[in-house]
Design brief:
heterodimer, A: alpha/beta, four-stranded antiparallel sheet, B: 267 residues, mainly alpha, 9 helices, globular
Chain lengths: 267, 267
């Protein structure tokens, strides 16, 4: 039985359709990468999966609960089994890194303070930040902030770990390190991992399956090899990093050629 | 004509939507207040409430005191210039004491707190919105109203009436200093006259107004923050709107309360 099941999901903003009747099943323990270009709807889909927004129609079942129709109490219960590492890390700047990670433990568990301190240290050690717990988020580098966000997302040992653009804004080495952290976490804790990204190298490194989004619809959902060997023109264009042949590009090109010709004539 | 009516209708609906949002948020905040109480509530919320009390109240005390003294002098001098012509200079004491306890104390405090803390609430929550911290709270199964707004609300309900009393004291003190230099009335006799002039209900009506003003400032400031959409420029706009709207609503509420007290015979 899939841990997440999305059925006929339609999302609209101000009458503009963003997600167009999506269907997707994510199995327990698999790493699903939602891949797509800017504006393809992948972050919107992610916000639906974590229950931050309501769809126009359709359902999102997480662990058997339809989070689009459940009560606030049920939604809170489901959310405790989901950890989210946001694109901007979204750490609380008024709290130290330690306190950021301790926050859900203090609020949602009855653990003694000494146990909470130990759990926080373990989570920080897993992401390689054991010595940085006393610092504030603004004192960390971009990569360290993202790793701290992963540590916070893991605080309650969630069954589902969600990453929104983990590589965004990071240099290739730090991005690759974060990919390794994701792989280690998955191996060690057998979590279901959902990653939203447009970074091909990262997607093909960490994914078990890839769902390719374009203009609010899935072009393909399959294993890395299936996506890599796809003949779909849009997928090929995305994988080959080929630009769109749009009208304004042609017009700009014509203007440039005309300008260069006039420069040559004037010389 | 149709366009004019359409515009008026749209504006009315927008204002009603705003007031509806404000009412819903206020009710949620009232329900969340119990979590901020000492002993019975959440200890972290109570600590945050105390921190807010220091920020809203203690740090604002010098400014409120100075504003009240200046206003006290202004009121006493303006009143004296007219009352002297009728040989009724003694009534300056009534003017200052009743004017401050019923009206100026709470109003000056509200204007100071609105400009100082209302804008800060809006900026803080707006920034949390832009940096996805509010989303992070929600996915960690926290209620942003309870976590962010309720401690501020409790703090304001405690410290705004205290600041109003402080403003009353400083305003009346300014009147006493003026009377000493203009009529050589000793401070002891001035205090005795004030105690004879002010009635308990004058102070109570001022404190009731203070509680209403505190509610308006916190709810408007926080609602503007929660409604931020976009980037840092939206945060800047929200702080301006928070101060303008809360000051406007404070004055409207003041008029309504004064009318109620007048017609019910409380004044």
């Amino acid at each position: 039985m899939p841990i997440i099941s999305i059925r006929d999901l339609v999302v609209e903003y101000d009458g503009r359709r963003i997600l167009n009747g999506l269907n997707l099943e994510i199995d327990q323990g698999e790493t699903m990468v939602l891949l797509g270009g800017s504006g393809s709807g992948k972050s919107t889909l992610l916000r639906q999966i974590i229950g931050l927004e309501h769809p126009k129609s359709g359902s999102v079942n997480v662990k058997g609960t339809d989070i689009t129709r459940c009560s606030d109490g049920q939604l809170k219960h489901v959310r405790r089994s989901i950890g989210v590492a946001f694109q901007s890390a979204a750490l609380f700047n008024a709290l130290t890194v330690e306190d950021n990670i301790a926050l859900p433990l203090r609020e949602h568990t009855a653990l003694a303070p000494s146990i909470i301190d130990l759990v926080v240290w373990i989570k920080l050690a897993i992401v390689g930040l054991a010595d940085f717990g006393k610092l504030y988020p603004q004192e960390l580098s971009g990569g360290m902030r993202k790793r701290a966000a992963v540590a916070r997302a893991m605080a309650l040992d969630p069954e589902i770990l969600v990453f929104d653009e983990p590589s965004a804004g990071l240099d290739p080495i730090v991005a690759a390190e974060l990919d390794e952290v994701i792989l280690v976490l998955k191996q060690a804790f057998q979590m279901t991992v959902i990653v939203v990204t447009h970074e091909l190298a990262s997607a093909f490194r960490i994914a078990d399956r890839i769902a390719m989004l374009h203009e609010g619809s899935f072009l393909a959902v399959g294993t890395k090899d299936e996506i890599r060997s796809s003949k779909h023109p849009r997928i090929r264009q995305f994988l080959d990093r080929a630009p769109d042949e749009t009208e304004h590009v042609r017009i700009m090109q014509a203007h440039l050629e005309k300008y260069l010709r006039s420069e040559e004539v004037s010389r | 004509m149709t366009t004019l009516l359409e515009g008026a209708g749209r504006r009315t609906l927008k204002d009603l939507d705003y007031l509806g949002g404000l009412s819903i948020q206020w009710w949620a905040a009232v329900r969340a207040l119990k979590t901020t109480l000492p002993f019975t509530g959440n200890s972290y919320r109570w600590k945050e409430s105390v921190r807010q009390m220091l920020q809203i109240g203690v740090n604002a005390a010098p400014m409120v005191g100075l504003m009240a003294m200046c206003s006290g002098f202004i009121l006493a001098m303006q009143g004296a210039s007219e009352l002297r012509r009728f040989g009724a200079l003694h009534y300056v004491i009534d003017l200052v004491s009743i004017g401050f306890s019923r009206e100026l104390g709470p109003l000056l405090t509200a204007i100071a707190v609105s400009g100082r803390s209302g804008s800060a609430f809006s900026a803080e929550i707006g920034t949390m919105k832009v940096t996805e911290e509010i989303d992070a709270l929600r996915v960690m199964a926290f209620e942003p109203i309870e976590f962010v707004l309720a401690p501020k609300y409790l703090a304001a309900l405690v410290v705004v009436p205290c600041l109003s009393i402080l403003a009353n004291v400083f305003g009346m003190l300014a009147g006493g200093i003026f009377m000493f230099f203009s009529t050589h009335l000793t401070l002891g006799l001035y205090v005795r006259d004030i105690m004879n002039t002010i009635q308990f209900r004058d102070v109570i009506s001022g404190l009731i107004k203070s509680l209403a003003f505190a509610s308006i400032i916190v709810q408007v400031g926080c609602l503007e923050g929660f409604r931020v959409r976009g980037g840092p420029d939206a945060v800047g706009r929200s702080t301006t709107t928070a101060v303008v709207r809360s000051t406007f609503l404070v004055i409207v509420a003041d008029a309504v309360f004064t009318a109620i007290f007048y017609f019910t015979g409380m004044h």
